[in-house]
Amino acid sequence: MDEVNVALSATDGFGLKNQGLTVQGQLAMLGEIVARRHNAAASDGAPSLSAMISCVWGCPFDGEVSTQRVADVVGAVAAMGVGEIGLADTIGAGDPWAVTRKVEAARRAAPEATLRLHFHDTRNTGLANAYAGVEAGIDVLDASVGGVGGCPFAPGATGNIATEDLVYMLERAGFDTGYDLDALIVAAKWIGQAIGRPAPSALSRAGGFPKA
To answer: Which of 65, 98, 134, 151 is catalytic?
Structure first.
């Protein structure tokens, strides 16, 4: 194993359901992991470490999540020396304008960190939110082939934004993603066959454009 991502929540409600800990308890847990990694790195080496903060744009138990709360949690994580910090829209409640506000606040709280965004497409705003994140200068975007995924503690949650849909959008805009879009579409269709229903992604239905 060469990479570890620690999940923690921006809210007590979700944290108690998912990790069995309040936000402060989760930060204490992360601090222990960081210390163990530091000790391992001094001896036999250690995997890279990142942290993902869930419910940044809304919590199914605590409701709205303020920009200040997000900045406080991001700042606490960055102060531990975690180099990559993810912001997750676990229940797909975000909108592009809120993405801009919270990414800017996270950047101020952790100016040296790599920022990653993780969107669910529950309310059909996932790609718009990804666009807002790119415009706000984020470093990494998460996605899943076919748009599958979800969360057992988020009522009504759907999958992540689809890798092929995201790649299509970015490459139409002139970005070089390094992905094979046709191969992603084939993989998404295979996933649909494996789960017994079509994958939710748009590209697995419509294909790319222009057609080869």
So the answer is: 151
Q: Give the pLDDT of the chain (212 residues) as one tens digit per residue.
A: 888 999 999 999 999 999 999 999 999 999 999 998 888 766 677 888 999 999 999 999 999 999 999 999 999 999 999 999 999 999 999 999 999 999 999 999 999 999 999 999 999 999 999 999 999 999 999 999 999 988 777 777 788 999 999 999 999 999 999 999 999 999 999 999 999 999 999 999 999 998 76
Please tell me the pTM assigned to this model: 0.94
Report the CATH number at residue 22: 3.20.20.70
Could you tell me if 124 and 89 are in contact, meaning their C-beta atoms sit under 8 angstroms apart?
no
| Contact status, residue 184 vs residue 169, Cβ threshold 8 Å | no
Instruction: Give yes or no: residues 119 and 91 share one domain.
Output: yes
Q: Quick check: is 59 catalytic?
A: no
* Same domain for 145 and 63: yes
Report the run of H or E that residue 165 belongs to, with start and end.
helix 163-172
Q: Is 157 helix (H, G, I), strand (E, B) or coil?
A: coil
